[in-house]
Design goal:
Distance between the termini: 78 Å
Order of helices and strands: EEEEHEHHHHHHHEEHHHHH
CATH superfamily of the largest domain: Intergrase catalytic core
Strand content: 5-15%
Largest sheet: 3 strands, antiparallel
CATH topology of the largest domain: hpI Integrase, Chain A
Number of helices: 13
Number of strands: 7
Helix content: 40-55%
CATH class of the largest domain: Mainly Alpha
Structural class: mainly alpha
Shape: elongated
C-alpha cells in the first residue's frame, strides 16, 4: 500500500523527496515480446526502513505499444516518488486493498489502464477495441489537462461534463460516436463503483445525444432478384446462401453468422452461441420455411457438427471464412450491378429481413425474439428507424376538414 509521507513542509512535484528512492526504468528484455516486461524501481519502506525493489508489469501486443506503455509508467512512477511516496506504511488505520499489479499507482490514469486490462479477458476482440479507443481518447485528455494523477474518487461530475463537452465541441465527433464514448466511460466508472472504490459515477447524469438512423440501406425486391441472378451467373451459391441466412435469421454477418457451426442448425431453430453473440448470451432464432428448404438443399446438417457452415471453399469445413471474405464477395456483386452506393452492404440484408418479417406478420413480439432485442422499446425504435410504424392504418379514419 502506497502513501505520501511529506515533511513538515508539503512536498510538491518537482521538489526533492523527503525519502530516498531509485528512479523507475524498464528492465532489459532485448525487445522480446514473448517475455514479461517490467518497470522496476526502488522506494522507501517505512516498515523495513530501507529501499525495497518494486515493479509494474508492462502490457502490449506490439513492440511500439509496450515501449509507450513503459514510458508512461516510468513517467508516472517517478513523479510519485519525487512527490514523497513510500511503501509499507506504518499506520493504525487498515489499508484499503488495491490490485497487486498496480499497487504503485493510485491515480485516475492508472485506473483506466487496469480497467482495460481486466476487461480484455471478458470482452470480444471488437468490443475491446472499441473500449480501448474510447479510453485512449480519455487518457489523452487527462494528460493534457493534468488530471491523470488525481485520485479516481475525486474526478467530479463537473469534470465529466467538461470532458464530454470537449468531445462534442472540440473533437466534433458525431452523436453516435459521442454516445459510444459516454457508454464506455459510464462502464469504466461503474467498474469501480461496483467494487466500492467510488461512491458515485460522475458520468451517470450525462444524457446521450439523439442519433440518426444507420446508413445501412435495405434492398428492394428488384435489387434482390438481380443479386440472386448475379450469384447464379458467377456460380457463387454460398454467397446467396449466406445472404439468405442474414435475411431470415437477422444475425450479425461478421461476428455471428460467419462463425456459425453445423451443430448450431437445429430442427426448428438456429443457435447463436454466446461466444459470438454481441450480448454474450446463447439464444435461438426460428428457421422459416424458405431458409429450411435451402438448408435441406445444401444438406448442411449432414456435415460434422463442429464444422463451420461458411468457408472460403464454399462448403462447411474446419476453418471459417476470414472476416472480410463475404464483404468482399458481396461488394464484387454490387459493383457488377452498379450498386456502388456505400449504404448498400451486408448489414442491409438484416434490415431487409426485418422489413419483410414485419410486413408479413405485423408481430412486433416475434421481431423482438428474432432480433434478440432485450426489450420491445428497442424493437420499436428499430422499426421506426427503418420507417415502419406499429399501425400504418391508424390515421386512416381521420376525417377531412
Amino acid at each position: 500500500m502506497w502513501q505520501f509521507r511529506g515533511n513538515k513542509n508539503q512536498i510538491t512535484p518537482g521538489e526533492k523527496s523527503a525519502y530516498p528512492y531509485k528512479k523507475a526504468r524498464l528492465a532489459d528484455t532485448g525487445d522480446d515480446l514473448t517475455k514479461r516486461w517490467f518497470v522496476v524501481y526502488y522506494a522507501w519502506s517505512e516498515a523495513k526502513e530501507k529501499l525495497v525493489r518494486k515493479r509494474v508489469e508492462v502490457k502490449g501486443d506490439t513492440l511500439e505499444a509496450r515501449l509507450k506503455e513503459a514510458k508512461d509508467i516510468i513517467k508516472e512512477v517517478n513523479k510519485l516518488l519525487k512527490a514523497g511516496m513510500v511503501t509499507d506504511v506504518l499506520s493504525d488505520e487498515p489499508a484499503e486493498p488495491e490490485p497487486e499489479k498496480y499497487e504503485s499507482i493510485q491515480g485516475l490514469l492508472r485506473a483506466t489502464i487496469y480497467f482495460l486490462d481486466v476487461k480484455k479477458t471478458s470482452l470480444k476482440a471488437n468490443s475491446h477495441k472499441t473500449y480501448r479507443s474510447s479510453v485512449k481518447l480519455f487518457q489523452t485528455y487527462l494528460k493534457d489537462h493534468n488530471l491523470g494523477m488525481i485520485r479516481l474518487d475525486r474526478f467530479t461530475a463537473v469534470q465529466a461534463f467538461g470532458y464530454m463537452d470537449y468531445v462534442s465541441t472540440k473533437l466534433r465527433l458525431s452523436n453516435k460516436s459521442y454516445n459510444k464514448h459516454l457508454g464506455v466511460l459510464e462502464t469504466l466508472f461503474n467498474f469501480y463503483l461496483y467494487r466500492q472504490q467510488i461512491r458515485i459515477n460522475p458520468f451517470v447524469g450525462i444524457k446521450p445525444l439523439p442519433e440518426r438512423p444507420g446508413k445501412h440501406t435495405a434492398f428492394s425486391p428488384d435489387q434482390i432478384s438481380r443479386i440472386k441472378g448475379a450469384c447464379e451467373l458467377i456460380g457463387d451459391h454460398q454467397l446467396w446462401l449466406f445472404l439468405n441466412f442474414l435475411h431470415y435469421t437477422l444475425a450479425r454477418p461478421q461476428s455471428e453468422l460467419r462463425l456459425l457451426r453445423v451443430g448450431d442448425i437445429l430442427e426448428k431453430t438456429i443457435r447463436i452461441d454466446s461466444e459470438n453473440a454481441k450480448n454474450n448470451r446463447t439464444m435461438h432464432v426460428l428457421i422459416p420455411p424458405p431458409l429450411e428448404r435451402l438448408i435441406q438443399h445444401h444438406r448442411l446438417r449432414d456435415y460434422p457438427a463442429s464444422h463451420y457452415v461458411f468457408t472460403i471453399e464454399g462448403i462447411p469445413g474446419e476453418k471459417p471464412a476470414y472476416e472480410k471474405y463475404f464483404y468482399n464477395q458481396h461488394r464484387r456483386i454490387l459493383t457488377l450491378l452498379k450498386l456502388t452506393d456505400k449504404a448498400y452492404d451486408l448489414y442491409g440484408w438484416k434490415h431487409t429481413g426485418v422489413i419483410a418479417l414485419y410486413k408479413a406478420t405485423k408481430d412486433v413480439k416475434l421481431i423482438q425474439r428474432q432480433c434478440r432485442h432485450s426489450s420491445l422499446d428497442q424493437t420499436d425504435k428499430y422499426l421506426r428507424d427503418l420507417g415502419l410504424f406499429l399501425d400504418e392504418d391508424q390515421l386512416s379514419g381521420v376525417p377531412s376538414l
